[in-house]
Amino acid sequence: MQFSDFGLDKRLMSMVEHLGFSTPTDIQQQAIPAAMTGQDLIASSKTGSGKTLAFILPALQRLMKNRPLSKRDPRVVILTPTRELAKQVFTQLRLFTAGTQFKAVLILGGENFNDQVKTLEKDPHFLVATPGRLADHLSQGHFYLNGLELLILDEADRMLDLGFSKQLSQINNAADHRKRQTLLFSATLDHAQVNEFAQELLKKPKRIAIGSAHTEHKDITKRFYLCDHLDHKQALLEHFLATEDYQQMIIFTATRSDTERLSAELSAKGLSAVALSGDLNQGQRNQIMDGFSKGQQKILVTTDLASRGLDLVNVSHVINFDMPKHTEEFVHRIGRTGRAGSKGESISFVGPKDWLSFKNVEAFLQQSITFEQVAKLKGKFKGIKPKKAAQTTKAKTTDKTSSKKKVVKTNKAKKAFHIAHDVGDMPVLRKKSVIAIEDIDNTDNEES
Ligand code: AMP
Predict the structure, then answer these.
(1) What is the atom index within ligand 1 of the atom nearest the CA of 47?
(2) 107 contact partners, CB below 8 Å, separation of at least 6
(3) What is the Cα–Cα distance from 185 to 43, expressed in whole angstroms?
C-alpha cells in the first residue's frame, strides 16, 4: 500500500512526498482510511511507529473536504499529556498546514495566559494543547467547542494517569454533538481506566491494535543489571558511558533532584549532559529540548516527563537509572529509541528499591528476564524473594486492630515516599490503597 492509495488531497500528498515517506507504516495503513470514514477510533501500536501522521492526515483531509460546522469554533482539538509532546505534534501539524488556509495554535500550561486569550480570539482551526490549560480557557469562555469536528487524544492513557479525566470530560461535554469524531491513540491502551473513559467519549469505536504493548519491540535491545545501591548504579552508568557507542542518550531517574545531581556529575566529568525536569519554567524546558534535539548535548537526564511520544531521532540509548513506577512507562521510555525502523539499546538498573517495579515490568512484558553482569562490577543483590503469606496476614491483622496505628503508618509512608522517590513529574501509583501518596505527589498538574 502507498500513501497515494488513500485518496488524500494533493497538498497533503506533496508534503508526504517532501518528507520522503512513500510507504505508510502499519498503523497508518489501518488508521488513516478508518479515520477518513468518520468513525471513532481507539488505536494502539508500538512507540515510534508513525502515530502522529496517522491522525494528522485524516484530520486535515476532513477539514479540506467538509464544510465547517461553525465559522468561529476550532474544528480540531489535539490533546497530549505533556507540553513537549504537544510542541512536537504542533511542529508536524504546521508542516502540513503551511500553505493552506488553516491556522493551528499551541495552548500550553506554563505560558502566558493573556497571550493565549488573544490567540484564541483569532479563531484558529486547530488547537494543540495540554488538557488543563485548555479546560481553563474553555471555562472562561475564551472559545467554544460547539463546532468541533475532531477530538484527538494522543497518549490518552497518560492523560488519565496524570489526573486529567475531569478536564477531558469537560472538553468532551462542550463538544457533545453527533457529528464529532474522536480518535484515541497510544502505545499502551489496555488499562481499565482507558476502556471506561472510551465508553464515555467514543461512539462505537473501531479498535485498531498493531501488535500489543506486551509484544517485543524488535528494534530495541533490552538489558537489565542488578545493582546493590546508588554508588553501584553510578559505577555501572560510568562504565556504559565509557563503553557504549552511543549517539545520544536519555537517562531516566525516579526523582527530579536526581536529574540535576546526575547531570551535574556527568558534566563535571566532561560529558555533555543536561537535565530536564518539571521544576523548570517553560522557557527553560523549551530551551533544553530544542538544544538536545539539535544535538547540542549528548545526554539528557530526565524523569517520566519525557517518557512519552518525543521523537528524537538520534537517541540510540535509553538508560533506566531507576525503574519507572508506572509499569507501562517502561515501554514508553525505551521507545524514545528504535524509532521508525532504526535500532536502539536500552539498559535498566534494578536495585532493591526498583525490585517491585521490575517485577511488574517483567509481568507486563510477559517474559522472564535474565540479568546481565559487568565482570568488574558484580554486586551482591540478587533480587527479593516474595514475602511469605503468614507475614502478610499478620500485617493485615495489625492494621485492622488499630486505626491510630494506621494513620501513623500512612504518614510514615508519605514521608518515606517523599524521600525515596519524589517522583516529581507524575502522580505515582494508581491503586486505591495509596491514594494518600497520590495526593501529596500530584505535582504534574503543572502541565495544566
Ligand atoms: P511518531 O510515532 O508519529 O512519533 O513517528 C515516529 C517517526 O516516524 C517520526 O520521525 C516520523 O517522522 C516517522 N514516520 C512517520 N511516518 C512514516 C512513514 N510512513 N515512513 C517513514 N517514517 C515515518
Answers:
(1) 2
(2) 116, 119, 120, 127, 128, 129, 130, 133, 134, 137
(3) 5
The CATH fold assigned to 220-377 is Rossmann fold (3.40.50)
The residues that bridge with 334 in the sheet, in sequence order, are: none
With the most atoms of ligand 1 within 8 angstroms of its CB, the residue from 18, 32, 52 to mutate is 52
Burial (CB count within 10 angstroms: exposed 0-12, middle 13-18, buried 19+), residue 385:
exposed
Top CATH class of 3-210 equals alpha beta
Give the whole-angstrom CA distance, residue 228 versus residue 352. 7
- Domain coordinates of the chain in residue numbers? 3-210, 220-377, 400-447
Query: Model confidence at 213, in pLDDT bands (50, 70, 90)?
Result: low
- Non-local (6+) Cβ contacts of 26 within 8 A are 45, 49, 210
Please determine whether the domains at 3-210 and 220-377 fall in the same fold group of CATH. Answer: yes
Q: What is the pLDDT of residues 162-204, one digit of tens each?
A: 889 999 999 999 998 888 999 999 888 777 778 888 888 999 9
> Do 61 and 181 touch, CB atoms closer than 8 A?
no
- What is the distance in A from the centroid of ligand 1 to the CA of 219? 15
